[in-house]
Write a structure and sequence with these properties.
eight-stranded parallel beta sheet; globular
């Protein structure tokens, strides 16, 4: 943080209700030097700016685990850069983002990381961290991963199965490498071979518009890749994070994996909760194209509610914006071919309001769970907790004073993002931030935004976090392959003779040597049976049971 931006003013938040992921309570919060100093009722402090939070909630600042600011695509770049993106994040109550490093062709991951840091450091208005996309899998990439973890402060890597051809063996070895380094692999799960063939089918049907994107990537394309990823992670003994889940079937696979005890984490997106895939069938090309993202938003109208149910139950842990915004003119790169439409939607500003509206206002999640799925769970997964994601003494003063009763209508005419379209256009939301505090500084109050370009900090992330690797460490203690101890097998003359005997003349087998077959009486069968207690196991023949080869010859009648 630049020296001029160091917080010098003490802040006292009075009269609010502090809400963490596990419990809430009325208290005042004192902030000094960018940290939470005291949390008590009826605090009295001189020389502090007082923020009246009566009737309001005091919650941890939101953590957005997936943004894509200044993302390149076919010679163009997403319009929300690190300044406009983090500025918009603060306006919506998010005080930290996790963005991505994407290396150019033949560029080393280390060089790409340094370049991304330089780009972001000069512009960010809130704290940020970085994860690194893997362009392929080979020994060079595996070696560079260690350098990134050791020297750059990243504890997760991103693997997009939709963008690169990767064998199951490569995925396995990548997960093993992540386990060795104590880091988390985030997977964008879509079966590339599947949807490439479906694209041909859709094109051959004469479909070139935005609807082709959804038609060529059905739910099965996502769910198959999710299942394969989870199975591979289990066999590799590694945790895995499934990114931007948009379908019911994929989410259900993750839910079942949790019930089996698999160490799998998963996020869904604000867009998957707040809108749907029907928009790509809109007769306005502009409207349809602006809803193209990957994996696609689903046309099944029950999807958003189902995803929120799984967030409420804990089978999904986090909500991301996956913010990757392009203006309509940029989307028009694919006006004649849906495969060239830049993929991505907005969400970094509206994420928390959308989650509140679709979760809290529907009664599916309470205040505490809202805090978990917008902040605390991400802090725990990416090893930021309790520095971030909690209102506690000693934690960073990244806080939001949230008004649960306020109303606003989302519109591209009033949002602060740099794009000219909003996928939540016209959505009435209850709940919004009144004050946002980042690093002890008031960045949003009723008078507006007060942000400074470059005032955010890069936050290095360490690996082997308890949330991700606690269970893995215990399992690895007993997870060891070992051979069965046996006496050496000795080949005898008798066994050699048996091996050379013609199969038709082998009378040594007690089963085939005696050609006489004996039938047990019902009483004998009752004594010997160890199977299930049904008619057949008791030696009684069920009614209508056809016997093709009974004693005395074949019959075609029913006994």
């Amino acid at each position: 943080m630049p020296e001029s931006e160091e917080p010098t003013e003490a802040l006292l938040i009075k009269g609010g209700r502090v809400v963490n992921d596990d419990y809430s309570f009325p208290a005042d919060v004192l902030i000094e030097n960018g940290k939470i100093k005291r949390i008590e009722q009826d605090l009295e402090v001189t020389d502090a700016r007082v923020i009246n939070a009566a009737g309001l909630l005091v919650i941890p600042g939101g953590i957005d685990p997936r943004t894509n600011f200044e993302a390149a695509f076919l010679g163009t770049c997403s319009v929300d850069d690190f300044y406009h993106g983090t500025r918009s994040a603060i306006a919506g109550g998010t005080t930290m983002i996790l963005d991505r490093v994407v290396a150019e062709t033949d560029e080393s991951l280390v060089d790409a990381f340094a370049k991304r840091r330089t780009l972001a450091d000069a512009k960010v208005c809130c704290d940020y961290a970085l994860c690194v996309s893997l362009p392929t899998w080979n020994d060079r990439v595996a070696d560079e991963m260690e350098l990134i973890v050791r020297d750059k402060g990243a504890n997760s890597f991103v693997l997009s199965l939709a963008d690169i051809d990767l064998s199951d063996a490569d995925l396995f070895h990548c997960l093993v490498r992540c386990r060795e380094l104590g880091v988390l692999l985030q997977v964008h799960a879509e079966d590339r071979n599947f949807f490439k063939e479906k694209e041909k089918e859709v094109i051959s049907a004469g479909i070139f518009g935005p609807e082709g994107h959804l038609l060529s990537r059905p739910e099965e394309c996502e769910s198959e890749a999710v299942f394969r990823t989870i199975v591979t992670a289990k066999e590799a003994g590694a945790p895995v994070y499934v990114a931007k889940v948009t379908s019911c079937s994929a989410a259900d696979i993750i839910s079942k994996a949790h019930k089996r005890g698999e160490v799998v984490f998963a996020e869904t997106t604000a867009a998957a909760l707040g809108t749907n895939g029907f928009h790509v069938f809109n007769t306005s090309w502009r409207h349809a194209a602006c809803h193209v993202t990957s994996p696609p938003l689903r046309a099944d109208l029950s999807t958003a509610g189902h995803l929120m149910d799984l967030l409420a139950s804990g089978d999904l842990q986090t909500t991301a914006s996956d913010n990757r915004t392009f203006n309509v003119e940029q989307k028009a790169l694919g006006k004649d071919d849906f495969r060239k439409i830049p993929s991505g939607v907005n969400g970094v500003e509206d994420r928390m309001s959308v989650v509140w509206e679709k979760g809290v206002m529907t009664g599916k999640v309470d205040f505490c769970r809202f805090v978990a799925i917008t902040s605390t769970s991400a802090a725990k997964i990416f090893n930021l907790y309790p520095q971030k994601g909690r209102v506690a003494v000693g934690s960073d003063a990244d806080l939001v004073v949230w008004d649960p009763s306020t109303e606003r209508i989302i519109s591209c005419q009033t949002h602060r993002q740099n794009c000219d379209f909003n996928v939540f256009e016209g959505l009435l939301c209850h709940g919004a931030p009144v004050y946002v505090i980042t690093g002890g500084r008031v960045a949003l109050d009723p008078d507006g935004l007060h942000v400074t370009q470059g005032s955010g900090r890069y936050v290095p992330l360490s690996g082997n976090g308890q949330e991700v690797y606690g269970r893995i460490r215990e399992r690895l203690k007993s997870w060891k392959l070992s051979p069965v101890e046996r006496e050496p097998y000795v080949v005898t003359a008798a066994s050699e003779a048996a091996k050379s005997s013609p199969s038709g003349d082998d009378n040594s087998n007690p089963i085939t040597a005696d050609k006489t077959f004996h039938l047990l009486s019902n009483e004998d069968q009752d004594k010997d049976s160890s199977g299930p207690d049904d008619d057949r196991s008791r030696g009684k023949r069920p009614a209508g049971y056809r016997v093709n080869q009974p004693p005395g010859g074949k019959t075609s009648q029913l006994w």
